[in-house]
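Researcher: We're teaching a course module on how sequence relates to structure. For the next exercise, students receive a sequence and then see the predicted structure as tokens, so they can try to spot secondary structure elements on their own. Here is the exercise chain.
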Amino acid sequence: MNGDTLEQQALKFIGEAETDRDYHKPWLTDVYRYCLPWRRRPGNHQQVNDQDDLFDATAIEALSDFAADMQITFTPIEDDWLDVEAAENLSVADAAQIAPQLAAYQDAVFGEIRRSNFHEASQEAYPDLGTGTCAMFVQDFDLTAPLQCQAVPITDLLIVRGCYGGVDFKAREIPAMKLRDLAPTYPRAALTPDLVQRAESDPGSTVCVHECYWRLWDRKSIERWQYVLLIDRKQADAAVLEGAGCCPLIVARWRTDSTTAWGVGPLYVVLPTIKTLDQLQYLVLKNLSFAVDPAGLFDDDGTINLENGVNPGDWIPRQVGSKADVLRSESDFDTTFFERSAMQSDIKRALFQDNPSQSGDTPPTASQWMDEKAEVARRMGAPFGRLTSEWQIALFQRFAYLGERRGDLPKVNLKGGAIRLRPQSPLVRAQRMQKVSTASQLLGAGNQLLGEQTMQVSVDGGATLRALQKALGDELVVLRSPEDQKALIAQAAQAAQAAGVIPQSPQQQGAPPPAVPTQQAA
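Model: And here is the predicted structure for the students to work with:
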């Protein structure tokens, strides 16, 4: 693109992105039709009201639960999904010295995230992650107001694959933006006299807007993005953004393919099953309609005509002299071989909604529940590496970038060191759950082989319980310290001896009672 103007470069990127999106258009359209029917379809500027033609809601419900799980797993509301720590090039003493500053820095960034509307907007973005690609705008419109987040559906997203497999071009396409919204949305935009005149005479008329960002690799040590605003494919604004988190449009992908910028989501594999189940439900309802309200035949002086088919409740004329009959299908409509419940389970499993269950009257045991939940977490952790860099870290950096521009972040004196972000991996949580499950099985086997009394002697119950609490990440249950436990045991033995249940030893006679431990409020 050497020698091209910014407008020409942006148009070339847009053309390349539109070509890539067109390859995925049939699949994306089907996903929206069967899983997000209320959304505008790719290539359509108007909403399509065809929900009456849907006959199964399994995918819709499973995708909604998938979005909620993604928020809990990757961006939980109350928990920090990243830990800020010192880089390896700092000494142990320096790292310990700035640890409180890093903790304050982390609290300030996540405080801004919770103060914004991120968690509401993420629930609109995460369903698109089921298709493979989700996107979100994070902007600072007003210094006195919280930061604003806006989910970008795949119908408004244009992306191009670039260096190292990342997304080097991102654009939000607004095909029909009201002219009255241009000035408040883009205060720096240079509007042509024609647009100004149209906005005054007909503010409700629309224009096509593209907010374009592409990565600049001329200085690899600094993250830089070129921003270009196009209104009706004419440049209206441009700027160069610098710094980690400077790009307001964040794009994350579930899995990737080397031939496209678009991600491959869990719905991609199960889409044939979704369509088959919906068609099967339609055929079942159609057959029930004929069973409840069958068609009939009656005598008429005309000629029978079945070119337009037969519908439930129809009465069809036939040759005079015949009698009236009810028309019933002689075909055997046995749909058991389709195993509708199995297809529903496949759809839920693809979206990680296959909750632990067991056929029959016996509910799943605790170990079965923990094993299956750990398996779900392991499968969910497969795309974790990409979502860490493209979603978790990118979001944190964006909020940190805006917070620093506002002057709301505390200063961290790193002495030349760099800040490192460490994500909370669902794989680590899955491994911890597996360890807890294994420990529970071992304790159960020990009780059966040795008996409870022998196990109490063989296993340090207090230390084991503390280890289980640490593995589960629980912060609510307050366990007594070993010293407090020993004091309570001695106090109980003293009370038993005073009651005559346990005889006192000569050394204990006349000894003062042990001190009662005090419990601090949790």
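Model: If you want an answer key for the exercise: The mean pLDDT is 82. The CA atoms of residues 101 and 411 lie 7 Å apart.
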